[in-house]
Write a structure and sequence with these properties.
The chain has about 210 residues and is of the alpha/beta class. The protein has one domain (about 5-210): Alpha-Beta Barrel (TIM Barrel). About 45% of the residues lie in helices and about 15% in strands. It contains eleven helices and eight strands. An eight-stranded parallel beta sheet has the order 7-6-5-4-3-2-1-8, sandwiched between helices. Strand 1 (about 20-25), helix 2 (about 30-40) and strand 2 (about 45-50) form a beta-alpha-beta unit. Helix 2 packs parallel to helix 11 and helix 3 (about 55-65) packs parallel to helix 4 (about 80-90). The longest helix is centred in the first third of the chain and has 12 residues, at about 5-15. It is globular and about 45 Å long. The chain binds 3-phosphoglyceric acid (3PG). 3-phosphoglyceric acid binds near residues 138, 164, 167 and 187.
Length: about 210
C-alpha cells in the first residue's frame, strides 16, 4: 500500500490519537520499552523516536515488538536509507524536518507514511500538489509560532499540521486551538534526565498532563 491518500489517512489517524506526539532522543535502547509503556499508560500512544543517536533503531525495534498500544514512529528522517531502515525496524510513521527531492521520491516508493516538515507556505503548497494534506510545521516557534500557522488556515484550509519545535505544555494550547492543528510535537515529555534516571512514573505523569490538553 504505497498510495499517497491511504498513507495520508494513516498519518491523520496517528496524529488524532492524542494532543501531543513526544519527540524522543534516546541514548540507551534499554530505556525504550519502559519509556514507551509509561507514555502509553499516560494516554500518549504515538511516539516519535528520532534518528539522532546510535540507539534509535534498536529502540524502535524494541517498542514495536514489546509495547502493546504504542504506535512507534521514526523522526529526523533525512534520507531514503533512514526511511528504509526505520521501516524494517518496525516504525509505523516517519517524520522529517524538511523535504528533499530524494526523500520525497523514496517516500513515494515506500508504504511507510511520511509527515514532512515545512516552514513556508510555498513548501506546503509543493507538498499539497503531491497529495500531502498532513504536515509538520517546523521549527514551530522560531519560524513564526501559532500566529504564522493560524494565518495559513484560511488560504490553505486543506492542510492539517503537527507543529513541533520550541513548544511546551504551557504554549501547546495556543497551537491546539487553531483549526488547522491536529496535535503538537515536543520533547518535553521525555527529558534526558528522566530517561537517564529511569523515572518512568515521572514520564507517565508528564504524559497524563499532555493528554489532558484536550
Ligand atoms: C526537535 O527537533 O527536537 C523537535 O522539534 C522537538 O523540539 P523541542 O525540543 O523544541 O520540543
Amino acid at each position: 500500500m504505497s498510495n499517497i491518500e491511504s498513507k495520508q489517512q494513516q498519518v491523520e489517524a496517528t496524529l488524532r490519537l492524542a494532543p501531543v506526539v513526544p519527540v524522543v532522543i534516546i541514548d540507551d535502547a534499554k530505556a525504550a520499552v519502559p519509556m514507551a509503556r509509561a507514555l502509553v499508560a499516560g494516554g500518549i500512544p504515538a511516539i516519535e523516536v528520532t534518528l539522532r543517536t546510535p540507539a534509535a533503531l534498536d529502540a524502535i525495534r524494541a517498542i514495536a515488538a514489546e509495547v502493546e498500544g504504542a504506535v512507534v514512529g521514526v523522526g529526523t528522517v533525512l534520507t531514503a536509507k533512514d526511511l528504509h531502515a526505520a521501516q524494517q525496524a518496525g516504525a509505523r510513521f516517519a517524520v522529517s524536518p524538511g523535504i528533499s527531492p530524494n526523500l520525497l521520491a523514496a517516500a513515494d516508493d515506500s508504504s511507510l507514511p511520511l509527515l514532512p516538515g515545512v516552514a513556508t507556505a510555498s513548501e506546503a503548497m509543493s507538498l499539497l500538489e503531491r497529495g500531502y494534506r498532513h504536515l509538520k510545521f517546523f521549527p514551530a516557534v522560531p519560524a513564526g509560532g501559532y500566529k504564522l500557522l493560524g494565518a495559513w488556515a484560511s488560504p490553505l484550509p486543506q492542510i492539517r499540521f503537527c507543529p513541533t519545535g520550541g513548544i511546551s505544555l504551557a504554549s501547546a494550547p495556543e497551537f491546539l486551538s487553531l483549526p488547522n492543528v491536529l496535535c503538537v510535537g515536543g520533547s518535553w515529555l521525555t527529558p534526558a534526565n528522566m530517561l537517564k534516571a529511569g523515572d518512568w512514573a515521572g514520564i507517565e505523569a508528564l504524559a497524563r498532563e499532555a493528554k489532558a490538553l484536550r
